[in-house]
Amino acid sequence: MPDSRIEIARVAKDFSVDGRPLRALDGIDLTVAPGEFVTIVGASGCGKSTLLRIVAGLDPAHDGEVRHDGRPVTGPSLQRGIVFQEPRLFPWLTVAGNIGLGLENAPLSAAERARLVAEHVALVGLSGFENAYPRQLSGGMAQRAAIARGLVNRPGLLLLDEPFGALDALTRARLQDELQRICAHEGITALLVTHDVDEALLLGDRVVVMAPRPGRIAEILDVSASKPRDRRDPVLAALRHAILDRLEATQAAQPQTATAREAGRRPAATLPLAARSA
Amino acid sequence: MTAPVTAIAWPARGLAASLHRRVHRHLASIALGLVVPLGLLVAWAAAAASGWLPEQILPAPRIVAETLVEMVRSGELAQHAGISGLRVLAGFSLGAGLGLLLGAAMGLSRRVEDTVQPLFTALAQVPTLGWIPLLMLFLGIGETLKIVVIAKAALVPVTLNTASGIRAIPEGYREVARAYRFTRVQTLRRLILPASVPPVFTGIRYGLTKAWTALVAVELLASAEGLGYLLVWGRQMFWLDTMIVAMALIGLVGVAMDAGLARIEARLQLWRIDAR
Q1: A60 touches chain B (CB under 8 A)
Q2: Rounded CA gap, A57 and B175, in Å?
Q3: Hey, which residues does A22 pair with through a beta bridge?
Q4: Is B178 on the interface with A (CB under 8 A)?
Q5: Strand pairing partners for B181?
Q6: Which CATH number fits the domain that encloses residue B226?
Q7: Does residue B176 form part of some domain?
């Protein structure tokens, strides 16, 4: 049940671009402790979603390995829930039907399934909409249903790939608060990928900053502010500057050094954090 | 949670009103569909009345109507239509059934698609009429020929639409199936079948139209009964009224069959019925 540990060791992945291999991820080392909420932030193209997909077991790594509670990840598992950027609800199923998809392979009786679905409908605040079809939902409601589908198996780990990226600012803020509440309530380990620095800081116990080409970890920051957090917390504001500086540096350093770096670059060490106790 | 609620409050607010609106829209669309046919009928009647063309070439609507009544009364029309209907039923069932199987195999397996696609595309390019001479040599001109020609006509669109419909299922949905470790059977039942209803039905409706057209073609060439035969016979005897009756009936039966299929399709897709 909840509280899974994730160990990512020396993970690398290549993509083929015009027939030539392009290193998308290089030397990723990261451990996520049980119950921890880790966010990964980076510019588009830094491989953060690729990393998440490898952890989910949807794509294979070319090098290194990912362990979930000590067992190597070789494919998707019901112990790892995933929420994509788009809700990906099946349009021919109701909200309850879509959430129930997560339980398709759970060894449960029909009554237990129904109970779990109802419980998770309530958890994400969709009570009363069980029988609505996806096209009747707003974007925020659809994403709530997707989160419920990701949680309904009670996985130890929840993976979120820019889950609020397509929502308007108000809905996004509301769902971020809900996610904080849900994860605290379930005591679940979570790994969330985003390009939104504020989101990363609001939700993460630690924030992993990634740099592009090849995708690698530039820095890991601890966020000491207690949860649930307020997005106006000055601690977050100070960290925000540190992360933005770091992201800008990775962008600026890019053009002239990209080719020189390409060959056999080792992972950047985790840098000591500058702005920790603001 | 406040804003979107209105979007979904409709069931309580006005089922009756929405039903009323839907019936209204339905009747309006039927009325619009009748405008052009009625216009043509009026033009036809006017042309016939003015003596613009000799009566042998353009009989008045009244004469055609009388012929229709006469043919219905004698049972002649029912006999021809029944025979044609049975042929289409047999040929279409065979062609659509095979097309569904072949299309599903092509949609589900890249290897099957790679093996079958080039030849299939090439064969599909040859119009149904082009197949008849060769098939006549193999099958004679009996019922088998007719059923095979109709089946081939239905097979092509059903196969192509089924295959491309399955291929077009978004990768994102397939990933959801993968993330929850669906077995092949679960993926088929939960994702592929429901997702492919719209394209499969497009293929089936198109296939039925093709089958009906092929029926007329094959009856024109090799038959002594059926609606297509009635057309040829009408032309040879210069009975334009008989011809027009047969043509109208062929068209009407086609419209009726298509409407029936549309109905079944809507029944299978209740989830998107008022999205239209």
Answers
A1: no
A2: 11
A3: A15
A4: yes
A5: none
A6: 1.10.3720
A7: no
| Portions of chain A given CATH number 3.40.50.300 | 1-79+156-230+243-273
pLDDT, one tens digit per residue, over A242-266 is 899 888 888 766 544 444 344 334 3
Q: Above pLDDT 90, what percent of chain A?
A: 57
If one counts the domains in chain B, the total is 1
Residues spanned by the domain of B138: 60-163+197-269
Low-confidence winner among B159-163, B187-191, B258-262 (lowest mean pLDDT): B258-262
Residue B15: per-residue pLDDT: 65
Q: Kindly give the interhelix angle for A110-123 and A139-151, rounded to the nearest 10 degrees.
A: 130
Q: Are B176 and A101 in contact (CB under 8 A)?
A: yes
Is residue B168 assigned to a domain?
no
Query: By C-alpha distance, which of B209, B90, B200, B82 is closest to B154?
Result: B209
Residue of B nearest to A87 (CA): B172
pLDDT digits (tens, 9 = 90+) for B83-106: 999 999 999 999 999 999 999 999
Helix B76-108 crosses helix B61-74 at what angle (to 10 degrees)?
A: 90
Tokens read off for A188: 């679940």
Asked if the structure places residue B129 within a domain, the reply is yes
Global pTM reads: 0.78
Tell me the C-alpha distance between B194 and B200, whole Å. 10
B176 touches A at CB < 8 Å: yes
DSSP codes, A133-152:
-GGGS-HHHHHHHHHHHHHT
- Whether residue B94 lies inside any domain: the answer is yes
Apex CA A44: angle with CA A12 and CA A135, to 5°?
110
CATH superfamily of A1-79+156-230+243-273: P-loop containing nucleotide triphosphate hydrolases (3.40.50.300)
Residue range A222-233: mean pLDDT, rounded: 85
Residue of A nearest to B3 (CA): A138
How many other C-beta atoms can be found within 10 angstroms of the C-beta atom of residue A107?
Answer: 7
* Closest-CA residue of chain A to B183: A105
Task: Let me know: does A47 contact A25? Beta carbons within 8 Å.
Answer: yes
CA distance B219 to A141: 57
Choose from A136, A162, A168, A175 for mutation: most chain B CBs within 10 A.
Answer: A136
